[in-house]
User: Fold these one by one.
Assistant:
Number 1:
Amino acid sequence: MRFLTRAVRSLRDADPAWGASVPPVYFSAGFEKEDPEELARLFAGKDAGFIYSRIGNPTVSAFERAFSSFVSARGAVAVSSGMAAITALVFALSSSGSKVALSRGLFSGTIALFRGVLRRAGIVPVFFDPLDFPSVEKALSEGVDFVFLEVISNPGMGVPHMDSIAVLSHEKGVPLVADCTLTPPGVFSPQKHGVDIAVHSLTKYISGNGTVVGGLIVDTGLFDWTKYKSEPIVSAASKAGEFALLYVLRKDVVQNMGFSISPMHAFLHYLGMETLPLRIKQHCHNALALAEFLAERDEIVSVRYPGLKSDPSYSHACNTLDGLFGGLFTFELKSKEECYAFVGALKLARNIVNIGDSSTLIIHPASTIYADASEEEKRGAGITEGLLRVSVGIEDSEDLIEDFENAFIKIYG
Ligand SMILES: *Cc1c(COP(=O)(O)O)cnc(C)c1O
C-alpha cells in the first residue's frame, strides 16, 4: 500500500464485533472477565487484553496500531499530550544522574520541562547547537543516554544535518530522538534519516482542526534495545527483547505516571490521521506561498522558512525533508509595537498560540511562549522583540496573501 492508502486502510480490524468502519469509542474504565483466572493471566502478562483504561483501552490501542502500521514502525504509544510523550520518553530512557544531549532552540515547553521538573528529578541536559557539528560531537562525548532534537525547530526554524547526527549517535550506541511535531508523516520519514524514536504532539497537524490535545511516541524499529546500556531498558530487554522500549513505556512509565489518553481523544486523532496526507500538502503549499510573498516586502527585516531558497537551512531541508517544508514560518518586523499593530490589522489570521490548526494563526513569541525564557534561551531560538510566528492553515493561499498585504497597507501605507 502507498501513502494515501495506508492513511485510511492501516486499521484492518476497527470493529470485529459489528464491522463499524471506524474504531468504536470504548468508554469503560474497567473490563469484565467471567473467570478470575483470566484476570490473573492478564495481570501476569500471560494473555493480551484489557483490564483498566489507564493501563490500556481498545480505542487507544486501535489508534496506536493504525498509526504504527501507517508509518511502518515497530510500535507506538499514545499519551495525553505532546509534553506527556516527551516526559514519558525521558523516564523510559534515563534516571536520576543521567545526562541527555539536547539541541538548543527547542519548543519552549520542552525547555521549561528540562529546566524545571526534570532537573529536580536529577536529569542533566547537555546542550548542543544542532547546526554546529563539533558542538554535537562535544555533547555526545559526555556520556549521554540519548540525543534529542527537533527536525525543524519551533520557532527557530533551523533544520539540523540529521544523517550525520544519527551516525554519530549510533557510533556512541545511543538513540536519536526527534520531535517530529512540525514534520509529520508526509513531510519527514524518520527511518530514512536514522531517527530511532519519533515523538509527536498529535495536537498539531496529525489531529488537525485544532481540537484536542494528545501525544505519541513512535519506536521506528531502527534501534536494537538489547544493546542499550541504561536502566530500566536493560531489565526490560531480558523479557521483551526488541520491544523493550515499548514495554517500559507501557508497563512502567505511562501506566504508573498516569499519562493515559482519553479514548475519545484517541478516536479524534485517528480521524485526523486519515486526512493528514491531504491536509499537510495544503499547509505546506500555503506556507511557501506566504513566505515567498513576505520575502519580497520592504517592510520586513527577515523571514525564516526552510523552503525558501534564501534560507540558511534550505540545503539541509532539501536533504532531510520529503519535498515539503512544513506549515510554520517566522518573520521579523522592526519592533514589538509594529508586530502588535500588524497582528491587530490581520482579518483572517487569528491571534492564537497553538500551531497546526486548519486556520492560520499568528503570535508574538517574545511576549507569549518565550515570556519566561532567559536571554540565552531566546538567543538560542532566534527570538527577538520584532519576531512573529505564523502557523499557516489550509485556506486559499490568495486570501492569506491578501490579508497580509492589507495589513501592510494599513500599517505602513
Ligand atoms: C506543541 C508542541 C509540543 C507539546 O505538545 P502538546 O500537545 O501541546 O503537549 C512539543 N513539541 C513541539 C515542537 C510542539 O510544537
Number 2:
Amino acid sequence: METIPLFNIERQNARLHEKLTAAADRVLTNGVYISGEENRLLEERIASYCSSTYAVAVNSGTDALILSLDVAGVKPGDEVITTPYTFFATAEAIKRLGATPVFVDIDPGSYNIDPALIEEAITERTKAIVPVHLFGLPANMETINKIAERYHLAVIEDACQAIGAKHKGKPAGSWGDLACLSFYPTKNFGACGDGGMILTNHQVFAEKLKMIRTHGTYKKYHHSYIGYNTRLDEMQAAFLSEKLSYLSDWNDRRRTIAKAYSEAFSRLPVQLPREEEDERHVYHLYILKTKRAEELEEYLKDHGIGCGIYYPLPLHRQKALIGKCQYHRLSVSEETAGTTLAIPIYPELTEEEQDQVIRRVLHFFG
Ligand SMILES: *Cc1c(COP(=O)(O)O)cnc(C)c1O
C-alpha cells in the first residue's frame, strides 16, 4: 500500500471543499453549463496571470495543442519540430493535423529540446516549433524564438506542465505565438475533470480559436470554418477560478520541497533538477536521474512511496509513431529514457512525509 502517493489531489480538494461545493452550486443554480460567465472570467484571469493578451478555454491540453497548430496554419505534409521526450499528446496533436513530427534531441541537464540542434532540422517544409516545458522547467525560449524569427516559423509552447514557471523573468506561455495549458487533475493547476487553455497575443488567432472551438460558429447556426466541439464546461471553469488565488503559493510550496530534496540528495550519485538564476521551475515533477531508476522505483513502492518513471519510452519509439516521424540522432533522449524517476511533490505534502521520502531515498543509496 502506498502511504505517500505520487499525487494526492484529494487532499487539495478536501481543503477547498466548501469553496468548490459553493462554486458547483453557483453553476447548477445558474443553469448555464457551457460557454458562460465562468469561462469568460477564467479566461480573463489566466491571461492576466500568464501575461498574455488573450486566453481561450478548451476541453483539454491535447485539444489546446490541436487547435493551436490548426490556427498556426499547420497542414498535411508540413513538418513540426518538437522533442521526443514528452507526453505522447505533443506529437499526437501534430499527427492529428496530418503533419510530421520532427524530433530534435534534448539537453541532458534540463530534459528540454536542445536549441543548438534545431537549425539543422529545419527544411522548406518546416512550419512550426513546439517546445515543451518539461516537468515544470521552461525550455530555452529566448534562443528558440530567435531561430523561429530567422526562419519565419510559428512557436507553440506546450506549457501543460508549467503554468506559473518563468524563463528570463517572463512567464511560460507568454513567449510563443500560441501556448497550451492543461488542467488535467494532477497538473499544478488541476480541474476536477479535463480542461485546457490556449494563450496568445495575436487577436486574429484568438478570434479564430473562439470560433473553431464551437464548430467554427461566428453567429448561431452560421459557420465560417470546419471546427471542433471542445469547450471547458462552466463547472470546471468555476472550480479553477476558486483555485487560481492559491496557485502561486502552491508553486512556491513545490519549490520549497524541491529545495529540501535537492539539499538532502546533493551527495548522491544521481542527477538532480537544474535551475538557472533567472528561471522559475514549478516542479510539476521532481526528477531523480539514475541508471538504477527501476530498482529505486521498486524499492520506494515496496516501502509505500509512490513514484514513476517519466518517460520510459521516447516518442520516436512509440508504436504509433514508428515510421511516421523524422529524426536524425536522439542519443540523449535514448540515454535518458527509463532513468528519470519522479518522487512525490505537491503543495499538500507534509514535512513529515517529505522527510520520509528523503530517508527512503538516502537509505536506498546506502
Ligand atoms: C498533460 C500534458 C498534455 C495533455 O494535456 P491533457 O489536458 O491531458 O490533454 C500535453 N502535453 C504535456 C507535456 C502534458 O504534460
